[in-house]
């Protein structure tokens, strides 16, 4: 079976130069998102996140997919650029601009982060979505070996 196709709108023509969404390597799981800015944005450490448009809109319709916006590993680990919502969930029926909540997680007094127009500042991965129905019960029909143990209960 081939890869699914979903509709994508370019909301910012500069993406044609900066780069259309594409997988950087043959088996890459995510496409990078570009910061559609007119001027650089400086994020001071530990201040409120800033919403930055990626300049694209998607219509996943009934593809059975959703998308997740995630930090880029290098920027997150080395510079402290992460997301104000930690992970962004893009619903299949959301057709507005995909926005990225850019947050400088460095502690007060740490390094500011500058995001340049066109910079690849976040990434987006597509995931299949299951939508189970819920059968409300008083007791579960089968036991499990873990039971209610969690939060480190296995040592
Ligand atoms: O990082 C993000 C997260 C969300 N969205 C868009 C797509 C998503 O489908 C919509 C709503 O997101 P979510 O359901 O997480 O937000 P909410 O706070 O629960 O608001 P809503 O009442 O709009 O669902 O906002 C983005 O563009 N970027």
UniProtKB/TrEMBL annotation:
GO MF, any single term: dUTP diphosphatase activity
Domain dUTPase-like: 18-155
Name of the gene this protein is made from: dut
Keyword Disulfide bond attached: no
Superkingdom to which the source organism belongs: Bacteria
One Pfam family in the UniProt entry: dUTPase
Protein's UniProt name: dUTP diphosphatase
Alphabetic keyword roster: Hydrolase, Nucleotide metabolism
Keyword Hydrolase: yes
Known catalytic reactions: dUTP + H2O = dUMP + diphosphate + H(+)
Annotated family: Belongs to the dUTPase family.
Record-linked PANTHER family: DEOXYURIDINE 5'-TRIPHOSPHATE NUCLEOTIDOHYDROLASE (PTHR11241:SF0)
